[in-house]
Specification:
Blueprint lengths: L1 H16 L2 H18 L1 H4 L21 E8 L9 H7 L6 E11 L2 E6 L9 E5 L12 E6 L10 H37 L1 H16 L2 H12 L3 H10 L2 H15 L3 H8 L4 H9 L4 H25 L10 H8 L9 H27 L5
Antiparallel strand pairs: 1-2, 1-5, 2-3, 3-4
Helix pairs in contact: 1-14, 2-5, 2-14, 5-6, 5-8, 5-9, 5-12, 5-14, 6-9, 7-8, 8-12, 9-12, 10-11, 12-13, 12-14, 13-14
Pfam families: BPD_transp_1 (PF00528), OppC_N (PF12911)
Keywords: Cell membrane, Membrane, Transmembrane, Transmembrane helix, Transport
Membrane topology: Multi-pass membrane protein
Length: about 375
């Protein structure tokens, strides 16, 4: 039996490899996953949530460049390497976009950046503020690949860090939905009778409530926040898993291997977990891939409504909310870039789900 299962797995894997769009989408998902985990390594602005604001250069076009003066602070950050790598660093320095600067004696005179050909305010700072009076090390040309948002933050950094919420909410939501769905579906399908009727009533009631409305209700009950959204989305996606598991178990419990397991005296828990569930795992993989995509869309909708991830945390849905009015103000890319990112990730999961469905179809 083990050799047969391994052979079927190898055959399914070979069929999946032949599906170009499935493999291509899987590579995209892996790349986005790596970017989301190591977002602060790739992000030009490695401060926490890429929240370094420069209001004087807000809403600049992609490829915008400006000279940036960094004024060092006396406050030292005591964060470790792990915290900096995965959660960003606390930037205690002050960054000032400038148009020009001059040095006279021990004073650095600079002109702040101003848009539309205007001249910014002129200010002075003592060279002693810089270590060893080396002011040149604190002036560099800063390039913004995706431009800046309405607060003057680096848009590329916000996009990269915002991928974390959209990517990981799929894992957490699918994990919660699988736990609840497998439990409820297994009990309903295996025992039947009044237990099945009651669980199906709960499933039908939950199914009848609009998903977004149910998520909003759970989010308001748990409170606004990062993990609350993850839990809320997961608690609304278990019904489909439960229905599929119930139907599969109703069919599988009449099979000869289940009858043999009962004759050998195995308890119900072992029969369900060791014999039935491994044989119905194929449909669950396909549903999980589809639920990944659904969770991403739901989270984006919640963030757009303002009850998802809260500022200053970066989220693709929240970025669309902040900049959707720029579509008619001549800078549509501020809303289109995160929208395209959501579309790309959702489409990748859907294509992988379709490829898995074809690969696991024993009739094909």
């Amino acid at each position: 039996m083990s050799h047969k299962n391994n052979s079927l797995t190898i055959l399914a894997l070979q069929k999946f490899k032949k599906n170009f769009w499935g493999v291509f989408s899987f590579v995209i998902i892996v790349c986005i996953g790596l970017i989301s985990v190591f977002a602060y390594v790739f992000a030009p602005d490695a401060s926490k949530n890429a929240n370094q604001m420069h209001l004087s250069i807000h809403s600049k076009s992609p490829g915008f460049e400006v000279r940036m003066l960094t004024i060092p602070s006396d406050i030292e950050s005591e964060e470790g390497l792990f915290s900096t790598l995965f959660f960003g660093e606390t930037n205690t320095n002050t960054e000032v976009p400038i148009q020009s600067y001059t040095v006279n004696d021990n004073t650095l005179t600079y002109v702040e950046y101003a848009s539309d050909g205007l001249k910014g305010q002129e200010k002075q700072i003592e060279l002693s503020r810089f270590p060893n009076s080396n002011y040149e090390a604190y002036i560099d040309n800063r390039s913004f690949v995706f431009g800046t948002d309405k607060y003057g933050r680096d848009y590329l950094s916000r996009i990269l860090i915002g991928s974390r919420i959209s990517f990981f909410i799929g894992f957490v939501a699918v994990f919660i939905s699988l736990i609840v769905g497998l439990l409820m579906g297994s009990i309903a399908g295996y025992y039947g009778g009044k237990i099945d009727a009651f669980i199906m009533w709960v499933i039908n009631v939950t199914w009848s409530i609009p998903t977004l409305l149910l998520v909003i209700a759970i989010t308001l009950a748990l409170g606004k926040g990062f993990w609350q959204v993850f839990i809320a989305v997961g608690l609304t996606m278990w019904v489909e898993v439960a229905r599929v598991v119930r139907g599969q178990i109703i069919s599988a419990k009449e099979m000869q291997y289940v009858t043999a397991a009962r004759a050998l005296g195995y308890n119900d828990y072992r029969i369900i977990t060791k014999h039935i569930l491994p044989n119905i795992f194929g449909p669950l993989i396909v549903i999980s891939a589809a639920n990944f995509a659904a969770a991403i869309l739901i989270e984006s909708g919640l963030s757009f409504l303002g009850i998802g991830a809260q500022p200053p945390m970066a989220s693709w849905g929240a970025m669309i909310k902040d900049h959707y009015n720029y579509i008619i103000l001549g800078k549509p890319y501020l809303a289109l870039i995160p929208g395209l990112c959501i579309m790309l990730l959702v489409m990748a999961f859907m294509l992988v789900g379709n490829a898995l469905r074809d690969a696991l179809d024993v009739k094909a």
